[in-house]
Amino acid sequence: MRGPPVMGGPLTRTWEVSAGMATNEELGRENRQLRERLTKLSEASLRISESLDIDTVLREVAGSARVLCGAGVGVITTVDDAGELQDLVTSGFSPGERERFMALPYGPELWKYLSALRGPRRLSNLGSHVDAAGFPGDETLSRSFLGTPIRHRGVQVGSFFLGDKEGGLEFTSEDEEILALFASQAGAAIANARNYRAVERARTDLETLVDTSPVGVAVLDSRSGKAASVNREARRIVRGLCEPGQPEEDLLKVMRVRRADGREHELDRYPLGEILQEAGTVRVEEMVLEAPDGRRVNTLINATPIRSERGDVEAVVVTMQDLTPLEELEVLRAEFLGMVSHELQAPLSSIWGSAATAMEAAAGLRPAETMQFFRIIREQADHMRELIGDLLDAAHMEAGRLSVAAEPASLAAVVDQARNLYLSGGGRNPVLIDLPPDLPRVLVDTQRIVQVLGNLLANAARHSPQLSPDRVAAARDGDHVAVSVDDEGPGIPAERLPHLFRKFAQGARQARGGGVRAGLGLAICKGLVEAHGGRIWAESAGNGPGARFTFTVPVVDEAGLGAAAGPAAGAADGP
Which of 21, 179, 315, 339 has its CA 20 to 30 A from that of 400? Predict the structure, then answer.
């Protein structure tokens, strides 16, 4: 019988050599596997960095994580700054599996639970784990699982969830290690994509803001004058100077600019860079933009040069405001001022003439004649007082100081008072009133709403045939009552309806009389109605006869008034 090999003998040396060869083979195999994994990790890191689109990045990250760890399916979630789920991207699921997976009734709570894991987690069966955590079991979750958080600069931005290790095996510590390494790369890629998305959103918001701005904005090349960017309002301003079919950009190159001090610049001869190199930034300067054929527009210009590091002007940011509407408003103001002067002069002349005649011929006048002069003086003074009152109301409205003292009132009484005041003041058209008997009380300043109705009735009479009836009606409209005044005059064109309530607005249809009170009446109505918390509008068939002006006033909260009055009444009954 042969004994054990003697230490140091031939057999021992043979065994040691064989063991060493096996160890070297294992190390070589492990090194090859490690190199393969590192190569895959490097390729995956490069792949997820190729795009800055967040959706593309998340899809690449989820797919690359599956490949690195040999997983059949994968899910990546991201969270916002508050830790709430923001994105969820799946990879490897069939359409049916994904539908069942996404339809889990406790899905949001499950993702929140899994995302709260502080470190990597390997499980042989995810379903058993979540069942033990209190979630209902589901065969969709019966699979091996590997999850790890995704962090960037110490802040968690999301999580990896992998399942179904290939070959039906469980995920290994090597899978866990490689996924953790990849998570750091994925965190940086996700952060970069998010930053890019934020920048793109900010850029889009800024472009939208600039394009919809009521002020024209253009960015021009300083040498060529070519427009790099022109917003909608700038195109509208320049388009008015263009010949039919001429692009706005072509006009910008040959346009003449006349400055407030008389200097002129022809942009085809003097590039903007040279002009601003001498003048520097232009702040709120009135300039005339003129086309070669003589057409022009008056504008308010700001121009800021964009300079290179050497100080040369590379581009110019120009903002322009079309002064045409302001010029038209100034014309209307001037015309209105002339109208005011004329209307004040007429009653003042009547007052002066009546007073002078009464004083000079006092001894020879009969009492009836004297009373007639006094009546003329009073009527004309009332007319002046009403006119000045309208002017003051318009001034208070423009300054935002038009106030009302609203109290509960019966709308029927308010309408009746307005009709009587209108008819006693010389109104010739009959007023027909149609109010339902069950109208609630309204919260109004009676004097002011009488003024609104009086202005609307006077407006209806000016535009209606003499003796044609004007109609006043009302109906409940939610928390308001809508009051309307209808006339039988000519219709109002649809394009004029939005402008009727502007100060100094020109009449949209032929009227009898008019003057200053007609020019301010509807604007004052709008201010008074809005001061009550209501609104006012006009309706008309256009070419058809008639127009309707409607305004709303709030309904009294009777329940609130009763609750407020209850304690007071109880206190009054006390000792």
Answer: 339
Query: Could you report the per-residue pLDDT of 84-112, keeping only the tens digit for each?
Result: 888 888 898 888 888 887 777 777 778 77
Q: Are residues 161 and 111 located together in one domain of the fold?
A: yes
* pLDDT, tens digit (0-9, with 9 covering 90-100), for 344-354: 787 888 888 88
Q: What's the pLDDT at 526? A: 92
What CA–CA distance (Å, rounded) separates 384 from 387?
Answer: 5
327: left (phi over 0), alpha (psi -120 to 50) or beta: alpha
Residues 67 and 177 in one domain: yes
Structural domain ending residue among the three candidates 200, 225, 255 = 200
Query: Which own/partner pairs from 48-51 qualify as long-range (CB within 8 Å, at least 24 positions apart)?
Result: 48/185, 48/186, 48/189, 49/189, 49/192, 51/193
CB atoms within 10 A of CB 191: 16
- Residue 181 vs residues 45, 148, 170, 383: alpha-carbon distances, Å: 10, 10, 19, 89
Q: Are residues 423 and 489 in the same domain?
A: yes
Question: Is 0.85 surpassed by the pTM of this model?
Answer: no
Based on the fold, state whether residues 419 and 314 are members of the same structural domain.
no
Which tokens is 111 given?
């993702």
**Helix, strand or coil for residue 118?**
coil
| 417, 375: one domain | no
Number of domains in the chain: 4
Domain assignment present for 141: yes
Q: Is residue 205, in this structure, part of any structural domain at all?
A: no
498 contacts 510 by C-beta, under 8 angstroms: no
Percent of the chain predicted with pLDDT > 70: 83
pLDDT tens by residue, 519-552: 678 888 999 999 999 999 999 987 778 899 999 9
Closest CA to 510 of 494, 523, 492, 497: 492
List helix spans (H) across 116-220: 126-132, 173-211
Domain region containing 317: 216-322
